[in-house]
Amino acid sequence: MKLRLLAFAFLAFSTAALTRADNYDSKETFTRTGAFDANGRVSLENVNGDVDIVTWDKNEILIEGEKSAKTDEELKLIDLKIDLSPSQATIKVRLPKRPGTFFGGNTIRAAVRFKLTVPVTAVLNKISTVNSSIAIAGVRGTVSASTVNGSLRTTGLGGDARLETVNGPVKASFDTLATGQKISCRTVNGQAVVAMPKDAGFELEASTVNGGIDCDFSLTLAGKHHDHQLSGKIGDGRASVEIGTVNGGIHLEAR
Fold it and tell me: In the chain, how long is the greatest CA-to-CA distance?
């Protein structure tokens, strides 16, 4: 099983020096709300700033957040675009160069923090950031989320999921596992912890390079078992689960 996230290593290195948002003094909050389909699609592309996504039993979306920057002048330069319709929400942040600079490393010192409240069955089509963490709770639609320098944590998921980070742990918890459901949890430098219901059934592929693998489930092995690789069938094998890391351990929890 290959870890495609290795392709992001240069990006992680080139952005690691950016200052975290909680060090910025100039701030501005924002709110946007609107009608949203139960299966509406959400896309969010951020650079600096944590992303927190929760659910409610409404056909509405609530987008809240805070822009912050080192100076008032840089705060005004943050490019935040929110395109919202009942079927789709597209959110993009761009941090331009500081005036008078022309080379790398001179991006404005700024961040945008988000909290999204969406319908339970909304689809998180693409949730991505670079120098921050992502937390998602209660979403039953498909989830695709990635970061480079930060943790990725989910609870109460119930659909297909692809969760990826480079420098940070992945911790994912699923309330249900249905026939044909596909789950992929991957990191490079960090631990991967995935929790499933005790009666879950799935085909497992787990691998690490520098770390061990712990599995709470009874597993029918597919081929030989190695300290750094584990594959086999759990229960009826109705779903598929892939877990991978390079520098870190893997723990598959039954709860």
Answer: 62
Look up residue 84 and give its amino acid.
L
Say how far residue 166 (Cα) sits from the centre of its chain.
11
As a whole number of angstroms, the distance between CA 79 and CA 172 comes to 31
CB-neighbour burial class of residue 143 (10 A; exposed 0-12, middle 13-18, buried 19+): buried
The answer to whether the CB of 173 falls within 8 A of the CB of 164 is no
Neighbours of 177 (CB within 10 A): 21
CA 113, distance to chain mean position in Å, is 14
Residues forming a β-bridge with 51: 114, 134
Full strand arrangement of the beta sheet holding 41-45: 79-84, 88-94, 41-45, 123-128, 143-146, 161-164, 182-186, 239-244, 202-207, 229-234, 220-221
Determine whether 2 is exposed, middle or buried from the number of CB atoms within 10 Å of its CB (0-12, 13-18, 19+).
Answer: exposed
Distance CA 121, CA 59 (A): 10
Using CA atoms, how far apart are residues 185 and 161, in angstroms rounded to an integer?
8
pTM: 0.89
The two three-digit tokens of residue 160, written as one number: 């297909």
- What digits encode the pLDDT tens for the residues 180-196? 999 999 999 999 999 99
d(CA 205, CA 201) in angstroms, rounded, equals: 13
pLDDT in tens, 211-254: 999 999 999 887 666 678 999 999 999 999 999 999 999 999 99
Q: Which residues pair with 216 in a beta bridge?
A: none
Question: Which tokens in the block code for residue 72?
Answer: 């008032």
3-class DSSP assignment, residue 72: helix
Q: What are φ and ψ of residue 252, in 5° steps? A: -105, 110
